[in-house]
Design brief:
Number of helices: 7
Mean pLDDT: 94
Number of strands: 11
Radius of gyration: 19 Å
Shape: globular
Distance between the termini: 42 Å
Helix content: 10-25%
Largest sheet: 5 strands, antiparallel
Structural class: alpha+beta
Order of helices and strands: EEEEHEHEEHEEEHHHHE
Low-confidence stretches: none
Length: about 280
Amino acid sequence: MTAQDRGLAALGLAGVPALQPLTYPGPPVTAPALLTGTELLPLRTRPGGLGTWPVETAAGVHRTLDDVLDALGQVPVAGRHPVLAVGSNASPGQLAHKLGRLGIPGTVPMVPVRLRGLGIGCSAHIGRAGYVATAPYARAGERRTLVVSWLDPAQLPAVDATELPNYRRVHLSGDAYGMTLPSGEPLTGASVYVSARGVLADPLTGLPRPGGGDQAALLDALLDASTPLRELLGPDAATWVRRAAADPELRARGTLLFAEEGWVLPWTDLPHPSA
């Protein structure tokens, strides 16, 4: 495999939902990897901790993750903070874009982690790019795999800034949420961004509307369900994201309409789940 083969574009992972809102949340990392901004290098799992996992470099050489980070002048795993992604932060193209536009190196270990107790819904707001992003909520018995990114002390506040004020970062216990690395080792904990706005309810069931699927289908369904929303942002999903991305007042008004339509579940916390 050549270095070009590991480029985000060659892997089909270079898309940026912030620039193409209807592609939200973008394709996630599906296997352990080291993002280097423009490339995704495979990580091989083994017992002993993430920093000891071998990285397959562009030259086909296997070196430990901490050795590769050191050679790149980057912070080792022990100095990084694990953050769960429930939306576009699991997409390497989006994460590289967020960091790159701020001039921060996009060198980030990204690992799918098994866990329990989290459902994925839709945040009850319209984001800066015009899309309706995902948000986690407590859901007992739910088991899923989510990408965890290990962010360094410069990357963490930079990503925080892209989430505020609509989200806040909270810490989850790895034991309470059953977090397990692909090596079979437990993850002691990780942060996740929780919506400060609550999550959207499905009007038919009163339960959280599932998030993370086809963004155009979601926006079209919301438009079909609300005449005021259709008058504000319609008639279709493409018009919605174009108008909303260009006008913060339209985003604010659309967000208010979610509440006026009675669609908002004010779930802004994540209690410990039941097994």
